[in-house]
Amino acid sequence: MSTTATWDTQGNWAMKDNNKGLSEAGLRRMREVLARHMESGGIPGLVALVGRGEDTHVETMGTLHEGGGAPMRRDTIFRLASLSKPITAAAVMLLVEECRLRLDDPVDEWLPELADRQVLRSIDSPLEDTVPALRPITVRDLLTFTFGFGAVLAAPDTYPIQVAMRELGLDGSAPEAGPDEWLGRLGRLPLMHQPGTLWQYHTGSDVLGVLVQRVAGQSFEAFLRERLFGPLGMKDSGFHVPADKIDRLPTSYAHDPQTGGLVVWDEAAGGKYSSPPVFERGGDGLVSTVDDYHAFYRMLLNKGVHRGERILSRASVELMTTDHLTPEQKVEKDAFGDHFGRHGGYGFGMAVRTHRRDLASVGQFGWDGGLGTTAYADPVEGLTGILFTQAAMDSLDTPRLHKDFWTTAYQAIAD
């Protein structure tokens, strides 16, 4: 049920003394806690990874599909959901380092659909009740989710802008449009808030995927494969699972709101991720394995270095993992409760811990995915943790599993 492997660490580990790696007693405790969650029946399967120093420990439990069948394996491929966002931010920073993008330049040259914006007078205004944007949207606005448009944290169709988003297929309820068509639809709507004033979830990452594609002159996936996935050895990461690997993709489940039981959200063979998408979404479109994703996080934890090769500059990694939001920009994020508000800060495409609320150190960075994924790195402890499941975070089962995983991950640190 578990395996342990050694990671060939190179680069500069400037962490607190973490050479002792992981504790066998702590890992046994983790195994027991994860097993209890599996016995409850709310999670068909999971793959959990914790890494520290040169120790990497993986637990695999349960099955790919509810009711039995093929077991979870270390190389099981999962839908990352919003764990795609940090990868998208890293791709943008590669272009910033090449001076093909600048953080505080307007995006109008590359994304003319977002130029000369109008802004709703208030979130509940009719679509025609607008004022001009006070300034253009910048790359930094997109990276920090403050460009003025995003998920509305209210019941569906509460406001006219939500109705318009649904009618244009911008809420995910309609068949996929290609990136240019999607951005054109977005450009037909006013912004919800003035650029730079308020954090709003998700949409910025999807826009960034289009931006990378246009600046790089190649598909978003081709850029990721050339500049990140290839150098990091992320051989099972991409925007779909090819036919010769589809047997490693679990069924994705949501929960019935009345009974709490599992209901199929996406099949493996023939499902949403079994063929290339028409829009390679930077916000939630990627698939990966725990080892692939660990390589990406180890690179960030190692200040941009992977096995002796520099992928990102140290300065870029530090910028990505620094809180960039003012208290005023955080109002909506922090009001949404534990999921968005517990970290304190937000960097580029991921959360950043600014206060000690639980066992995680100040400076921990990472994010969670709505389809059942969680991944964070703690520079103070030199700790990386990744837990992938195929059960969505729309009931108490998966969030509780995630919290217990993180509690035991910190217990696994060998002092």
TrEMBL record:
Molecular function GO labels: hydrolase activity
Origin, by domain of life?
A: Bacteria
Keyword entries, A-Z:
Hydrolase
Check the record and name the InterPro entries matching this protein: Beta-lactam-related, Beta-lactam/transpept-like, Diverse_Enzym_Activities
Q: Which organism is it from?
A: Nonomuraea recticatena
Stated name of the protein:
Serine hydrolase
Give start and end of each Beta-lactamase-related domain. 31-391
> Is the keyword Hydrolase in the record?
yes
